[in-house]
Amino acid sequence: MTRPAQVRAREDARTGTRFADYVIGERTGPLRFTLEPAFVEEYIAAAGVNASLYRVNGRDAAPPQVLTLFLMGTLHRRYAPLPATVMAGLVMEFHAPIWRDESTDIVSEGKILAKESRRGRYYVTWRAEYRREGGDRLANITNTFMVPS
Fold first, then answer.
1. Which of 21, 55, 99, 136 pairs as cysteine with 132 (C-beta 3.0–4.6 A)?
2. Per-residue pLDDT reduced to its tens digit, 126-141
3. How far apart are CA 128 and CA 130, in angstroms?
4. What does the angle CA 51 – CA 95 – CA 23 come to, to the nearest 5 degrees?
5. What is the pTM of this model?
């Protein structure tokens, strides 16, 4: 079972990435991890999720937002975290279920989409693409965060 702390870079592990260092079009990852049924159940309990809402064709599915726990791990494969980074936006697209009763090997990769400065604040937008190890697309998450200059 993979836990987010196992794949997330620590802020003090290496020098953090400044706004000027992000490169539009550059790819991040891959990050490989396994979602186990036990971890999904822990997430459901900790987040207070109504698990009955996540059924697809009569089968129990994991709440797809569980993937957000691995989001920054994908980015940090290439760009080290910097203290005081703040999430400014998140858009999720879900394409296929993750089944609650089976282990799922997942690969996520990302791409820097945009950088901009607004009112003296610096924003980076990037997308993480999640797929099963075999290739089936699971989700895309587009994230915008504010980073110190």
1. 136
2. 999 999 998 899 999 9
3. 6
4. 115
5. 0.86
